[in-house]
Amino acid sequence: MKGFKRQKGQEKPQYAESHNEQGDLVKKDATLVKDDPSGKSKSVSRRDLLKLAGVGGLGLLLGGGGVGAVLSAGQRLESMMTDADTKDVISFYGKHQAGIVTPAQDFIYFAAFDLTTSDKEQVRSLFKAWTEASTTMTSGVLLGNDNENLNLPPSDTGEAAGLSPSRTTITFGVGPSFFDGRYGLAGLKPAGFRELPRFQGDALEEQWCGGDIGVQVCANDLQVAFHALRNLARIARGTAVLRWTQEGFQRTAQADPAGSTPRNLLGFKDGTGNPDTSKADEMNRLVWTQTSDGPAWMGDGSYMAVRRVRMRVEVWDRSTLGDQEDTFGRHRSSGAPLGKVKEFDKLDLAAKNPEGKPVTPPTSHVALAHGNGSINILRRSYSYSSGLDKQTGQLDAGLLFISYQRDLFKQFVHIQEKLARNDKLNEYIVHKGSAVFACFPGVSQGGYIGDTLF
Amino acid sequence: MKLRYAVPAGVLVSSILFAGCGQTGTATQQPAATTKDAGATTQTTTPAASAPNFDQAVAAYRTYAIEQCDTFVKKTEEFTNAVKAGELDKAKALYAPARMYYERIEPIAEALGDLDPNIDARDGDVDAADWRGFHRIEKTLWEENTTKGMDEFSDRLLSDAKLLRAKVETVNIDASLMVTGAVELLNEVSTSKVTGEEERYSHTDLYDFAANVEGAQKIYDILKTDLNQKDAALEKQIGERFTALQQELAPFKDGEGYVSYTKLKPEEVKKLSQNLDALAEPLSQMGKLLGV
Questions:
Q1: Which of A116, A306, B62, B253 has the largest CB neighbor count within 10 A?
Q2: Domain Dyp-type peroxidase N-terminal, which positions (chain A) (predicted)?
Q3: pLDDT tens digits for chain A (454 residues)?
Q4: Would you tell me how many other CB atoms lie within 10 Å of the CB of residue A185?
Q5: ipTM of the complex
Q6: Is B24 in CB contact (< 8 Å) with chain A?
Q7: What are the residues facing A430 on neighbouring strands?
Q8: From A27, A142, A149, residue closest to B292, measured CB to CB
Q9: What's the CA gap between A208 and B267, in Å, rounded?
């Protein structure tokens, strides 16, 4: 991809510089090289640039310029990098892709792309270019070499300049249509990987469905997340186009420093029953596709289900608290199961009230989703609000439901079929969008997303 | 024509950093010769002798612009004559083809002060009292289905076209204008033609679309050899994407012209727009020619 080349093999970032005939320092290439995923990089981040402007820039402005001045300013940078900067980076590299068991960041920018090329090599090039961009952007470094050249559009779009990496993760997957034969990869499609069946009550709209490629960008800052997605789309131009996007949010760490379970837009805690992501064996059982599951390229990957679920918030807001709690099967304020006190108190679906009726209605959301407790998924949902429904003037708001699982059909579909048929919540929600993606295993240094597949 | 650069935050930062260090600040306003010099000084390893010489390219583009202008005046006169003669159908048929000669060299016209608004302003672009030019006549021809009352607008349009022809000889063309002009032409398509806003009464937007693309392609053709030496992969990619866009446009050809914009389905508009973006992105990198 043009405008996107970076110099490889440099040990540390360098300001390549020289002097022109007047003896002025001429900055030839302000590339801020970053190839070190360890988080201990010596590269100059978007934020350091600002700091440098503040600390060292004055001397340069006053005519103290020259190689020495710039180098010493560059050296000062390292000491200026704070712990906060490195803690704000989640490495793009790893055994698994980041953004799956990573604790959910405050914001999401989700995008589905369609490929417009019929050439497999172009797809491979795109994935390589995306990998390079992703490692750069998740480190908080400006993209590309041409951010100083007045004769060219800057290679980084710039809106994240000076902003921290914000724990950005970028997670890639491919949809069933990726294996439709255009690239000779049909034989590598995982057995049974296909779009979700139509669930009872689905009101899917094409504009929110499907895609050859799914990209989940999460960050603690929406502008940083948007920047990442925008640049990925820019790099893809000519090879892939955006099919649909949805941004989403949760409460931020600032609003909830304790990091308690987030609430959905119906006011209820959402995610209490999630499995413990710190338990590796549990993640291997529930989330990570094992090599033995086949095909081999999906080992250490995961399957993502995405559903755009519109909430009828106006109707919900007219329901009594009693109805609302019976619908979810939990108390609104504490998140505790009905009849219990604390959020994480054990769900007891057999408990009866004095009249002999179940304390938790069997058609409540929690009762159906929990079932007998043997089947679980990793939920990583965000709320969305996308203006008004033009037809009714009601809020187009709801849940961008995302779950990760080792097996889409044994886990997500199994649960969703029960919910679609009986969930009391269906009175207040409607599924408008649906997509599934096979998310690659993680990328190791020197590799690229999807390299196990190609 | 917006020759000034919007400086994004990232560039701003480094401009602060390296202000006074020589490279930044002046290149955009300078004619080609000075740009070459700047290129030579920033790349100390490159001997000045090998700095690209755009004299031939500029001369070739000037010739093209003058040719287009000559025909533009001729075709505009045929159009305005038909309007003044009250030949409604003939005027309608001549309207879009005449405009194509203008649309191919729009960056040149835009560099010439008030000529562009006088010739090409749409309703709302200028104060109502000042609105004249093609689109003023377009509105009457298609909305009111008459040529009545258009005599004076016709005369002024023709004299504006002739003024453009006279001034085009004097316009200061340099490689920078060509490079930015090529992108500018596609941006024109992207903002108003592909959305059907340009020809809101006649719906002949695809004529303008094709002409803008042809104008951009002419610039690419002229600079192609130089670009190939600088960055062969980029040159190839631009060429391929011009071809892809032309193929996308081909099904909408109708005889010598193009079908009405109203015939396009939403997904066809979207696809044209996406192909355009795919081309404009690498095209915007042609600035690499300018000694960087």
A1: A306
A2: 97-250
A3: 222 222 333 333 333 333 333 333 333 333 333 333 443 334 556 766 555 544 433 333 333 333 333 333 334 344 445 555 678 999 999 999 999 999 999 999 999 999 999 999 999 999 999 999 999 999 999 999 889 888 899 999 999 999 999 999 999 999 999 999 999 999 999 999 999 999 999 999 999 999 999 999 999 999 999 999 999 999 999 999 999 999 999 999 999 999 999 999 999 999 999 999 999 999 999 999 999 998 999 999 999 999 999 999 999 999 999 999 999 999 999 999 999 999 999 999 999 999 999 999 999 999 999 988 899 999 999 999 999 999 999 999 999 999 999 999 999 999 999 999 999 999 999 999 999 999 999 999 999 999 999 9
A4: 17
A5: 0.78
A6: yes
A7: A310
A8: A149
A9: 15
The token pair that represents B164 in the structure block: 């453009």
What is the secondary structure of A209-263 as a DSSP string?
B--SEEEEEEESSHHHHHHHHHHHHHHHTTTEEEEEEEEEE---TTT-TT-PPPB
* A67 contacts A17 by C-beta, under 8 angstroms: yes
DSSP H helix total and E strand total for chain B: 12, 2
The amino acid at B253: K
Buried b (16+ CB within 10 A) or exposed e, B227-241: beebbeebbebbbeb
List the single best residue of B2, B12, B18, B268 to mutate versus A (max A Cβ within 10 A).
B18
Cβ–Cβ of A151/B287 closer than 8 Å?
Answer: yes
Non-local (6+) Cβ contacts of A425 within 8 A are: A327, A328, A365, A419
Question: What DSSP letter does each residue of B31-69 carry, written as one string?
Answer: -HHHHHHHHHHH-TTS-GGGS---HHHHHHHHHHHHHHH
Q: Inform me whether the C-beta atom of residue B260 falls under 8 Å from chain A C-beta atoms.
A: no
- DSSP character at residue A339: T
Report the alpha-carbon distance of residue A404 to residue A98 in Å, rounded: 12
> What are the residues facing A17 on neighbouring strands?
A27
Distances (CA, A) of A63 to A21, A126, B19, B25, B233: 17, 44, 9, 16, 40
Sequence-distant (6+) residues with CB within 8 A of B111 are: B1, B3, B171, B172, B177
Q: What share of chain B is helix, strand, coil (3-state, %, to 5)?
A: 70, 0, 25
**Considering only residues 265 to 284 of chain B, which have any Cβ-Cβ distance to chain A shorter than 8 Å?**
274, 277-279, 281-282, 284
